[in-house]
Amino acid sequence: MTRLNTCTFIKQIVKITSIAALLGASLNSWAAPTEIKFSHVVAENTPKGQMALKFKQLVEERLPGEYQVNVFPNSQLFGDNNELSALLLNDVQFVAPSLSKFERYTKKLQLFDLPFLFKDMDAVNRFQQSDSGQKLLNSMKRKGVIGLGYLHNGMKQFSASSPLTLPEDAQGKKFRIMASDVLAAQFQAVDAIPVKKPFSEVFTLLQTRAIDGQENTWSNIYSKKFYEVQSNITESNHGVLDYMVVTSSTFWKSLPADKRKVIKASLDEAIAYGNEIAAAKVNKDKQAIIDSKRSEITYLSPEQRAAWVTAMKPVWAKFEDKIGKDLIDAAVASNE
Questions:
Q1: What GO biological process term is on the record, naming one (predicted)?
Q2: 26 pLDDT band (50/70/90 cuts)?
Q3: What is the pTM of this model?
Q4: Which residues contact 24 (CB under 8 A, 6 or more apart)?
Q5: How many angstroms from the chain centroid is the CA of residue 317?
Q6: To the nearest whole number, what is the mean pLDDT of the chain?
Q7: Is residue 152 part of a domain?
Q8: Does a structural domain hold residue 81?
Q9: Pairing state between β 240-248 and 145-155
Q10: What is the domain-level CATH number for residue 125?
């Protein structure tokens, strides 16, 4: 090969290499964003549903083209009995189960199921933001689950196919509960029959009278139309139904530190947004149920409420060793 031909050949190689480099860079810039799946079991018009959509919006605005958050509401991907298993298998990256759902990963979160522990949502919030409450976010790290924040739904009410005014009114009735030993003990304390069933099945169970009642927040009772198949709702405010937004240790550690910081900030903002909606929806959804005239609302007198407290409070002592007396005392202190 002559010297001229060699130079020409080298120039062509350099040109081809440059084109390939540019093409590679272009392909990288066109690469599909990393998918983040956020699965939950409630409707999109609930505090949790709106929080998840806000999270999607913020992440995609702040990390455009890098991450795509796909939200799957209403148990479209996973039900509330298998979403945590799916999280650990990385089939989904974010879930927000009710605090009752973590029983198999830590007994400490059973605290939130204790009946009549918190007097209102302000007390719940004070406890969750305290040192004791924040430590609970890390109570499942050894099991591969990382808590990132608390999301409110509200205080729980009893509903049934007949009025519930005193504890004896619940005797012999079947109530759907989440998979929680504390909630089972709560209903057993008033001689009712707890039935552990997925949230997605509750409406049908109520409609077909396979169960007599359930417990839930005004938001869930309204959004899932439970009031249409329950003739009576008792405003008991006997417990809290909150969620913990969690991810897996594996996924969280896989994120670049700078991206993780943006995603966490977006989640914090979305949770605050969801909590504002939760507070606003309590009275709004309650009033919508009243206006529907499908359910009769029972308001407990101080004496009637005291009877329920007396019947159910012994559940605290039953689970004190598993939860920790220090945590229960800290929760009680938040009521002051």
A1: C4-dicarboxylate transport
A2: very low
A3: 0.85
A4: none
A5: 26
A6: 92
A7: yes
A8: no
A9: antiparallel
A10: 3.40.190.170
**In 3D, which of 70, 74, 44, 97 has the Cα closest to residue 274?**
44
Q: How far is CA 25 from the centre of its chain?
A: 41
Tell whether 90 is covered by a domain: no
Could you list the residue range(s) of the whole structural domain that residue 279 is in? 100-333
How many Å separate Cα 91 from the centre of its chain? Answer: 18
**Which spans in the chain are helix H?**
3-29, 47-62, 83-88, 121-129, 131-135, 181-188, 202-207, 218-223, 249-254, 257-292, 302-312, 314-323, 325-333
* CA separation for the pair 285, 235 (Å, rounded): 13
Q: Which spans in 80-229 are helix H?
A: 83-88, 121-129, 131-135, 181-188, 202-207, 218-223
Burial of 215-250, coded b for 16+ CB within 10 Å and e otherwise, reads bbbbbbbbbbbbbbbbebbbebbbbbbbbbbbbbee
In a domain, 136, yes or no: yes
The edge-to-edge listing of strands for the beta sheet with 213-216 is: 193-196, 174-177, 213-216, 157-160, 232-235, 296-299
Give the number of residues written for the chain: 336
The string over 58-97, giving b where at least 16 C-beta atoms fall within 10 Å of a residue's C-beta and e elsewhere, is bbbeebeeebbbebbbebebbebbebbebbbeeebbbbbb
**17: Cβ–Cβ under 8 A, 6 or more apart, which residues?**
none
Residues 199 and 194: their CA atoms lie apart, in Å, by 14
pLDDT category of residue 17 using cuts at 50, 70 and 90: low
Residue 166 has pLDDT above 90, yes or no: yes
β-pairing, 213-216 vs 157-160, is antiparallel
pLDDT in tens, 207-263: 999 999 999 999 899 989 999 999 999 999 999 999 999 999 999 999 999 999 999
What's the structural domain count of the chain?
Answer: 1
The token pair at 259 is 């991206």
Nearest residue to 67 via CA among 252, 251, 247, 263? 263
Which tens digits make up the pLDDT trace of 289-329?
999 999 999 999 999 999 999 999 999 999 999 999 999 99
